[in-house]
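User: My collaborator sent over this chain with a note saying "see what the structure looks like." That's all I know about it. Can you take a look?
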Amino acid sequence: MTLQCVHNTIAPKGSANNMVRTTLKKRDLYLDRMIAFQDTEMIKIMTGIRRCGKSSLMKLMANHLREQGIQDEQIIEMNFESMRLPNMDARGFYEYVKERLFARQAYVSVL
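Assistant: Without extra context I'll predict from the sequence alone. Here is the result:
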């Protein structure tokens, strides 16, 4: 089973569409391990070498949460390599998340 994922990319000059579809492979073993701790207070940390699938797994988790009825407004997704967050420090990160938690009453975060 595969899932479709849409993400922003730099579009070719003159292109009106800056969305690209990529396919995520379902990684049940790892996803099931994350789901097992979904509603616990434990902080989850995922580590791994570059390009091993950490971001893809987080996108799969976000899709799982949506399938469980969690609204998009309750999910916080951040790409730390994005130029939208060029100078994010610990204080900026805290404020960014806090603002979204209280404004939207979001209690589920995917980073």
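A starting point for your reply to your collaborator: Helices lie at 28-36, 54-67, 90-104.
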